[in-house]
Structure formats: C-alpha cells, structure tokens
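quick one
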Amino acid sequence: MDSLNYDFVVLGSGIAGLTFALEAAAQNKVLVLCKAALAETNTAYAQGGIAAVLSATDSFEQHIQDTLTAGAGLCDELAVRFMVARAPAAIKWLQQQSVLFDTATDETIALGLEGGHSQNRIAHVKDHTGLSIQQALSKAVLQHPNITVLEYHFGLDLLTQTIGQEKVCYGVQVLDMVTGNYKTILAKAIVLATGGSGQVYQFTTNPTIATGDGLAMARRAGAAIRNMEFFQFHPTALYDPGSSDTFLISEALRGAGAELVLPDGGSFMQQYHPLGSLAPRDIVARAVYEQMHMHQSECLYLDATRLPGGRLQRNFPGIYTRCKSIGVDAVTDLIPIVPAAHYQCGGVVTNLHGQTSIVGLYAIGEVACTGIHGANRLASNSLLEGVVFAREAAKHVKVSDLQLHCTAFKSVVYSLPDNRDDKIVLKTKKALQTLMWEKVGIVRTAEGLLHATYELAELKYSLKYLQGYSAAVQEVKNLLTVVELILDACVLRRESVGGHFMEYEPVQLQTRIQDICS
Ligand code: FAD
Ligand code: SIN
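structure w/ flavin-adenine dinucleotide:
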C-alpha cells in the first residue's frame, strides 16, 4: 500500500474541485483525485449557464428574492446573500481562467433567462457552458506547478480520528483503478468535491459518475447531512427511449421563448403558475408529470418553433444537433420531453467556508449543503455555488492552522472483489434505480415510501456477503447509503414542499405508516 503526503487533497475535478485547487495552490501542494477522466464530471454537461447580477436593471436583492422563492422558504438567507454578493466576482474569476462567455453587440456578457429568474442574469457559452468551464479549468490545473492530478483514482473512505471532543479527518483511502493498488493519502485538509447522486434514479440527466460517493463517505465518517428529501427533477429531458443516456433540453430554451405544450399542441403551464413555462423547476416538473398522467402520454412537448429564425441553431447548437440525430428538426417539429432526476439539493452540511462538522474535512459544490437551495434550487445557481464556496474554502483553509492529525493511523487492508460479484452489483444497482424512480420520485405516497424502505433492506441484504473493494462495488454501496438518507429524510419531512411532494395533504407520514402496518 502506497502512502502519499499533500497539504490538501481534493476529491473531484468538476467546477468546485478545480476552483478550490487553483485558488489554494499558490502556497500549498494540492492533489486532485478523480475516479474517471479529469473532464468527466457533471460540470461538463451543464448547458444553461451561471447566474449573476451583471446588468444595470438587475439587483442583488432581486437575485436573492428569486433564490428564496424557488427554495420554497427553506433557504438559509444569510448564505444566499453571501453567494449572490460574490457572484459577479466569480464570473470575473472564470473569465480570468479563460472562460469566454457569449457577449452582446456592445461586448458586455450576453445574459439569458431561466425559470424562476425575474431578470436576464444567466452568463453562458451557447448551450455548452459547463464544457467550456471544465476545459478552461482543466487546462489551468494541468499547467499549475503545485497541483498534481491523479485520474482514475477512486476515493473509498475518509480517515478520521477523535481528538478530545472533536472528530478530525486526516486522509483518504484510495483505489488506483488502473493498477488495482490501494493508496493511503494523508493531508492537512480533505476537500470533498464529488458532485451529486443522480444515478440513484433510473432516469437522470447526470452522467454515470454521479453516485453520491462523497456523501456516503461523509456519512460513514459521521458528518452532518441534511435536506436529502429535496431531489430536483428537471422537467425537460429529451424523450428518446432508444438512448442509454438522458439528454437535457436546457431551460434556457424556454428562457428564449420555447413553450411547454400538450400532445395536441395546447399550452397548459399558465394554469399552474403565472410564470408559465418559466415557473420554478419543481412546479414545472410536477405539472409535466401530472399532464403526462392525465393524457396517458409517454411524453409532452417543447415548442421551440416560435424562436426567431436562426436563433435555435446559433444559440443552442448542441440541442439542435442532438434532436436532429433522432429525427426531430426543432426548427419545425415539437421536441418530445419527459422529466428526469437532475440535482441533489441536500448534502453534507457546511458553513460559509465549506467546513463540515468534521475538523479538516471540507465539502464544496453539489455534494455540500450550504443552505443556498432550500427545498428547490434556482436554475443556474449550482455552478455559481461551486465557484463561490470553493474560493471561500480555499481562502479559509490557507489561513487556518491545520496540521496532520494521524497519530492513530492504522493501515486498512483492502482487497479486490471476486469478478463473479459483478452480476449482483449490476442487478442491485438497476433494482435500486427503478425502486427510487417508481416509489420516491416526483410525486410520493406513504405506501411508496414504506415499500421503498422494505425493498432497501432487501437490497442491502443482497450485498451483505460481498467482500472486497472495487469502484463498482463501492459505488452501489454508496448509492444504497444515498437511498437510505433520502428515505430517512422523507419520513421526517411532514409537509409537501419544493422537491418533496406527497400525494396526500396534510401529510402525517408516521401516522399513515402506522395505519398501513396495523
Ligand atoms: P462534478 O462536476 O459532478 O464533479 C464531480 C467529480 O467528483 C468528478 O471529477 C468525479 O470523478 C469525482 N468523484 C466522484 N466520486 C469520486 C470518488 N469516489 N473518488 C474520486 N473522485 C470522485 N448547474 C448550473 O448552475 N447551470 C447549468 O446550466 C447546469 N446545467 C446542468 C446540466 C446537466 C445535464 C447536469 C447534469 C447538471 C447541470 N447543472 C447546472 C448542475 C451542475 O452542473 C452541477 O451541480 C455541478 O457541475 C456540480 O459540480 P461539482 O464540482 O460539485 O461536481
Ligand atoms: C439547464 O440548462 O436547464 C440546467 C440549468 C440548471 O440545472 O441550473
């Protein structure tokens, strides 16, 4: 087993991890680990853009109020104010890293509109904002003399010890997925930037890396976690049953004038919200779900034919091309859409500096719960949160007096699992994804949650005898931990709010479960 020493170890190479690395590396040695290629992140798939107050007609107060409204009253207002005030500087920092945002004719940043925003405030690079950010940050990190990147290195577990009253994190156990070697990496601070857990659902816009590993590691280490019942569903993923991935049709398209319509072409969103197709995302996703059921339709449609000529191809080339590839010419045809799991609003609890409840352990980006998103995230606030809190964490970690805490260090002996386990791992993963989609999806019932709780116990049992540590085994165990966290949170949440919507009102779930059981 190799043992390596760094000042800071960052798990994750998306917007949050790379921003932290670049900001902390001026005076420190930083190691960035990722379980796939450097650029295979949720960040790279982001389409719409990044929110910030950048025009004279907009104000911090409006961005704050839009965020609080979308969050359905459960945001931490202090954190929201903190982030919104730092958003313009975050955009400037990204520009300094060579992100070339689209500009208007007067050379200022062109600002798009998305759901829940009362102003045009989304900085973007056509419909591939995330990819442009990922490429710029990846390049900067690879050129930095103080940053080492190890791709295909899977974080297995955090190393912690208790000193007095405090739990302290001093390292991480890692699997080199290429050689099969296990490594122990020690550092003054460990930064979780592992992204979300969309893979917990059968249909998700998230790439396969999004298995909630950092969240599960934090849970095993005993860190505080909250708001896991609030999983955000995006209303417009491309309906393409022939495809293995779920392609997003950006909300920015609705911001540019596209409308959600029924199979007969009729509008329906005005009956749900005065903002129509641009209402907060949880409301739109539920409306689409309800209308699909009412019309017994496998999908609804997005009408982008009303955009001015040429705009679709010019501003949304990725969406236009993907639709074309399945025979939909979005200039003249309606785009078939369905909702899909999109974003984990809860996560590892942090303060404004990214500190978790464990000394030496930081969490930034989608894995963290800063309190910004409350019960439902406002569009394009996620990339922003990643940059703002990564920069704050880097500032904080530099001035704090962290030392290596590894007095109790004992090397754990790991071994690879048997290849014959692959089948059971795959079967369990598919079963849990279907279970979550069917029982803990956009609209939830007490019966569904109860069923999911029983089924979870069985799925956990099916993995009980798996020995050994591979990325695949660990991922499915981590997904089960995420399911458990979501179900626990659902049972405790008494009311329907934001991303947690129960069919019955008012919801007294515990009582209902008792009724069902008796
Ligand atoms: P990620 O970018 O997901 O990176 C996670 C990293 O962690 C990866 O490098 C991965 O390899 C690594 N990792 C995970 N587990 C391990 C492990 N066990 N060991 C080692 N490494 C590990 N948000 C917006 O604000 N605007 C948008 O327009 C937007 N569009 C989106 C479109 C799509 C299709 C999707 C999926 C999301 C979108 N989002 C958008 C959300 C946003 O992209 C993500 O929330 C954000 O990119 C998360 O960044 P991150 O740095 O936290 O994690
Ligand atoms: C989108 O482009 O619709 C996604 C925006 C987001 O998730 O914030």
